[in-house]
UniProtKB/TrEMBL annotation:
Residues 65-199 form the Metallo-beta-lactamase domain. It comes from Candidatus Carbonibacillus altaicus. InterPro entries: Competence_DNA_uptake, Metallo-B-lactamas, RibonucZ/Hydroxyglut_hydro. This is Late competence protein ComEC, DNA transport.
Length: 298
């Protein structure tokens, strides 16, 4: 196993040998088939001197999930599909995470919110943050307590204790008719560094966002695991990301090659969780490091 580290500003690449830890996991069969094999986990996450913010794109077998960690708070953007619950739990337990202060649910569909109810049952969750059009569906299907639900839309923001900020860019009034375009779009800003989480939106919503906001970003989470109807050429020109992260599988069949070609044509450094494993970013106010680690394979 290897651990690759890239300094984003200097594009300096080093390769370090890294051995992953395998932790046994026993999963109860509550809607999810119990795993008969231990779920490979990551080493315990440590805070090096000077660490200020970490963003970790998790390599679940299905769905999208991103952890945002500071010294004071832990947030999760999306939960992955229900079938990936053993993997998500292995990561949270391996990193000794017992509380999630906020869980953002970009969409009520399984790849984004499939494990919301499991998180509520297993960990301390402060609030679930979701778009107006999704509240009733998520409350009904995920059986979440209504007092844990916070409805957010364009113009809302969350200030973190370390000075970082999460702004909601979508949805806005009127709520889009397309279910994909009702998805949350979030921007995480820390000093000069910006992350853009595009949920499941397509090129029509991307055009609307371009006209409303300055979409320039350093790091882009690719929409819907690289679905060809999003991450348009125009959107990439306007957002001009240095780095993009594409989750491996959203449970839908499509050809993601066009999206890859558009990203590479714009000279974007592309990481894919299916190939690279978890993509972890150590963020400072004016730069960031990118590393990735792969689970041990048997």
């Amino acid at each position: 196993m290897f651990f690759f580290k890239i300094h984003a500003k200097r594009r300096f690449l080093t390769v370090l040998s890294y051995t992953l830890i395998v932790l046994p996991l026993i999963v109860s069969a509550c809607g999810v088939k119990a795993s008969t094999k231990p779920i490979p986990a990551y080493p315990v996450l440590t805070w090096e001197e000077g660490s200020e913010l970490k963003v970790a794109f998790l390599d679940l077998s299905e769905g999208e999930a991103t952890l945002i960690l500071t010294s004071w708070e832990t947030l999760l953007i999306d939960t992955g599909s229900e079938s990936s619950w053993p993997e998500l739990k292995a990561v949270l337990d391996g990193w000794r995470i017992k509380r999630l202060d906020r869980v953002f649910l970009s969409s009520p569909d399984d790849p984004w919110s499939g494990n919301a109810h499991k998180l509520q049952e297993t960990y301390q969750v402060g609030h679930f943050m979701l778009a107006p059009g999704w509240s009733q569906k998520i409350l009904f299907t995920k059986q979440l307590p209504s007092d844990k639900i916070v409805i957010v839309q364009s113009g809302d923001g969350l200030q973190l204790k370390n000075g970082a900020r999460i702004d909601v860019l979508n949805p806005s009034d009127p709520i889009p008719l397309s279910p994909h375009n009702q998805s949350l779009v979030l921007r995480l800003t820390y000093g000069e560094i910006r992350f853009l989480f595009t949920g499941a939106v397509d090129e029509h919503m991307e055009k609307a966002l371009i006209t409303k906001y300055d979409m320039h970003t350093e790091v882009l989470k690719v929409s819907s695991c690289g679905a060809p109807w999003g991450t348009s050429e125009q959107f990439l020109r306007e957002s001009d990301p240095q780095v993009a992260v594409k989750f491996s599988n959203c449970g839908m069949r499509f050809d993601d090659a066009p999206t890859r070609r558009r990203l590479l044509a714009q000279w974007v450094e592309l990481y894919e969780t299916a190939e690279d494993g978890a993509v972890i970013m150590d963020v400072h106010r004016d730069d960031y490091d990118v590393s990735y680690m792969q689970r041990e394979k048997h």
